[in-house]
Amino acid sequence: MPFHKLTGEVEMSSSIQKDKKYVLHGWGYSDIIITEAHGAVFKDQNGKEYLDFLAQTAGVLGAGHAHPKVVKAVKEQLEKGLTHTLTMFQNEARANLGEKLAGIAPGRMKNNCMTYFACGGSEANETAVKMAMKITGKKEVISVFWGYHGGTLALSSLLGQSWHREKMIRYPGFSQMPNAYCYRCYFGQTYPECDLICARYLEHHIKHATANDVAALIMEPITGNGGHIGPPTPEYHKIIREICNKYGILCITDEVQTGMGRTGKIWGADYYNWDVDIMSTGKALGGGLPVSGASIRSDLVPEDMKTAQWHIFTMGGGPVLAAAGCAAIDVLLEEKLWEKSADTGAYLTKRLKEMEKDHPIIGDIRGPGLFVGVELVKDRKTKKEATDEAIAVFSHCLGKGLFFGLSAKAGIGNVCKFKPPLNTTKEQVDKAMDIFDDGLSEVEHKKGSGGF
Ligand code: PMP
């Protein structure tokens, strides 16, 4: 199914024809050609402007489209004439990026981690898992329902949505357990009476669903792709950590979406005070360029991992990319983007809460920061997913110039996701929420007259 198609509204330009003939999209299809972008706004081929409330791919443009500092850093590095070096050699930009990333890393990793740089979040997670296997000598990995860690063959078996693995081989030893999904608790419980059974369940999973050979547990602190689902309290991660300690399992936080200020803290692990051993990063780390990394606590790194051949992704940490990463971290710190995320996110959430009273289709609103998910339901009692309605709201809003996240198949299809650049203004939030409000009314009206 096309993710979005403006049939008839868009001129079949030669670029679109070329694209149709030569390009595979892989994640849905749209006839919109993005011709220009700045801050939280992009323009299409007809000059129409859209508020980018997804920062393109789930928060990549955390500091906005074409942030001048990132553009300047890339230009300067390009002008130095050094675009690529073999990973064995040193390049100054990569060393700087390693230092900057360590300087903001969560918990015990702060100023105490080493990073293998790559280009995408999948590469970062492949590396993170490999690190855990090498260090522990164990082979199994646990992840959670609705989690997303990347599109490679191995990682497909770590995803908490089985459709990713359709017609593919299941990687042995990779398994999933229920996540902390309070709105639809798998254990039929309610917080706090539940005593966080979803976290304690990990021990049953290790005992009964593995070969007791678990190297790591990998988790997004809050699932992004899957539908913005996070545990209610840091106690969850404390329990997870204790169980992992008991069984010699390393904790990997996948910060590809939740990192770089998105949740109102620099990392999702900071938000939950999760004591982690390995962290994967990507998306916003490159300020729009492909920069990712697997960072690991320095005290866990064996000597041979520092010098021997054990892993390679050719392009990771290239000087131009690393310069972009350094600039993205500088912008994060200079503009205190995580504080903006907390403040503007609270404002956005307040607007949604106000809307909730008038729109019974809203089932649940989940933050934190500018990492907001709105779950739409046909009925608040049955909680039946309003997936078609969510698609209709999305299309309506897109037509009115608001773009946000919605994955009809990839995640929980009835969740509208708002993750705009962290320096989006409150005026832009107001504009976006007015359009969304209008979209909900439109769809509810249609629903009331038998349209759904
Ligand atoms: N982890 C998370 C949490 C993600 O959201 C994504 C991408 N959506 C990835 C990993 C994979 O990143 P990439 O597509 O850059 O390989």
Helix content: 25-40%
Q: What is the CATH superfamily label of the largest domain?
A: Type I PLP-dependent aspartate aminotransferase-like (Major domain)
Order of adjacent strands in the largest pleated sheet:
4-10-9-8-7-5-6
Mean pLDDT: 94
| CATH fold type of the largest domain | Aspartate Aminotransferase, domain 2
Instruction: Tell me the overall shape.
Output: globular
What class do helices, strands and sheet pairing give?
Answer: alpha/beta
How would you characterize the largest beta sheet?
7 strands, mixed
Tally of DSSP β-strands: 14
- Named at the architecture level, the CATH assignment of the largest domain is 3-Layer(aba) Sandwich
Unreliable stretches (pLDDT < 50, length at least 5) are 1-11
> For this structure, what is the CATH class of the largest domain?
Alpha Beta
Distance linking N and C termini: 18 Å
Return Rg in Å: 22 Å
Bound molecules: 4'-deoxy-4'-aminopyridoxal-5'-phosphate
Q: H/E series, N to C?
A: HEEEHHEHEHEHEHEHEEHHHEEHEEH
Strand fraction equals 5-15%
